[in-house]
Amino acid sequence: MSAAESAQPSVLNTPPSQRAVQQIQISEKKRKKMLLQKLINGFLFIYFLLLSLQIPLLNGQIILPTEFFPKFLVDLVSKYIQENNDYLMSEKPHFRVGLAWVELLLQWPLAIASVYGFLKKRSWVKKTCLAYGVSASTSLVAILSELIGSGKGSPKLVSVFYGPFMVFTILCILNGLDTTSLLSVNLTARPPMAARNKRV
């Protein structure tokens, strides 16, 4: 046996049936990962779609005069404050007003961009997810620290309203850090580079 033949990768010595099983296992793992990614993308798409409406129409009432909003939206926020004793929305401390400006000027555009990115399967949506997740989680840490530390926030307010937002922001960060799944799906939908060059 020549030196070249002895240097062949050991995978070539694997029986064809075993290589077929390995390929099936790899394909199955990729399929499950892509299915999980699609499920996460679906949840985040709905989340960002609702968020793109909530920030300007509801959270915007913290910093903008109520005259700018329809009466039913003002009544909706008032009812929410009364039922859940969200004193941060009613008393509007300075730090909460500052966070509301961050939501309107930074997180809202990121939410709109993410909706478009998920809808069109753009690879850069990972970056908008990560940017939003970092910004929103930082804001929520300050809000939750105030609600829990002051003792004025009810358990319902923390666990039902603000808590789930923290879960979604962490999901956005994790989704943004995984830069492989959506990119591979996006690239497979495009024609090969050689084919594009030939058309040009």
From TrEMBL:
PANTHER family: SIGMA INTRACELLULAR RECEPTOR 2
CC terms in the record's Gene Ontology section: endoplasmic reticulum; membrane
Keyword Transmembrane part of the UniProt annotation: yes
Keyword Membrane: yes
Compartments where found: Membrane
Keyword annotations of the record: Membrane, Transmembrane, Transmembrane helix
Source organism per UniProt: Papaver somniferum (Opium poppy)
Domain EXPERA: 40-173
Topology relative to the membrane: Multi-pass membrane protein
Residues passing through the membrane, by range: 39-64, 98-118, 130-149, 161-189
Predominant cellular place of this UniProt entry's protein: membrane
Domain of life: Eukaryota
This protein's name: EXPERA domain-containing protein
